[in-house]
Design a protein that fits this description.
With 266 residues, the chain is of the alpha/beta class. It contains eight helices and seven strands; from the N terminus they run βαβαβαβαβαβαααβ.
Length: 266
């Protein structure tokens, strides 16, 4: 018997089998959940290909989070299919290349705005649109993927600003959706070798910092610890948690100075 037996989950952002979203989809099925994936545009074929690699191939619905009509169509589909949605994984982010990689000062406003709309505002879009289905659940839950936005990181630039916005959106969703019994939380993951990471020029600078400075061993190629934290927040076990940012990063965020694995122990 799984911890998510009978739960109905919508999972966005599955593009490769190395992604956190794919790991969440696989682990959710292993824990007894019924899932539907979303994709759009040129990535739709990739999502469909990844769906076939899951333990049980789920349906893939088209949903561009900047298109209100497509979001409404998925809401209508799931209302007729399930009548309820127990949880949604928001694994959506995009930042134009000219707003990353040390180009913070040169980035145009249009790129920063695009990053905000897709990476942060879209969490609100999903929360608002799916609220009527989420509130029918005993413990409706939104979970978004985050990267610690309390600090400035090398090369992360306007992606970092977008994550700061995402963290604020999460708190406001907790405020406005909580009275309807809907929770909203984020999982702030350490760096992983995903497709999104591959698009960030200089990603290895961040990755090496975690490898050397996280107090717990941090595996750049293992999204399962992050996925399991997402499953916890999607489950009734987290029924009194909202507005939270759960760090799954080997403890890196907790340290003020990262001195590496060879430092003397007490």
């Amino acid at each position: 018997m799984g911890h998510l037996d009978g739960k109905k989950l919508l999972i966005t952002g599955v593009l490769t089998d190395r992604s956190i979203a794919f790991a969440v989809a696989r682990r959710a099925q292993e824990e007894g959940a019924e899932i539907v994936l979303t994709g759009f545009g040129r990535g739709m074929r990739l999502t469909q290909r990844m769906a076939a690699r899951l333990p049980s191939e789920p349906e893939v619905l088209e949903m561009d989070v900047t298109d209100e009509e497509q979001i409404a169509a998925v809401v209508a589909d799931l209302e007729s299919r399930w009548g309820v949605v127990d949880g949604i994984l928001h694994a959506i982010a995009f930042v134009p290349a000219d707003a990353l990689g040390g180009r913070f000062l040169e980035a145009p406003a249009a790129s920063a705005i695009a990053a905000f709309e897709i990476s942060a505002f879209s969490l609100k879009s999903l929360g608002a649109a799916f609220a009527p289905l989420l509130e029918k659940s005993e413990s409706g839950s939104l979970v978004g993927l985050d990267f610690d936005a309390s600090k400035a990181w090398p090369i992360y630039d306007w992606a970092g600003v977008s994550k700061a916005a995402l963290e604020s959106v999460n708190r406001y969703l907790a405020q406005y959706l909580g009275p309807r019994g809907i929770r909203s939380n984020l999982v702030a993951a350490g760096p992983l070798r995903t497709m999104a990471a591959g698009a960030i020029e200089g990603f290895d600078r961040l990755a090496s910092a975690w490898e050397q400075g996280a107090p717990l061993a941090w595996a750049l190629d293992d999204p399962d610890p992050v996925a399991d934290a997402c499953l916890f927040l999607l489950s009734p076990w987290a029924r009194a948690i909202t507005g939270e940012i759960l760090h799954v990063d080997g403890g890196f965020h907790a340290l003020g100075v990262h001195v590496g694995p060879d430092s003397p122990s007490a």
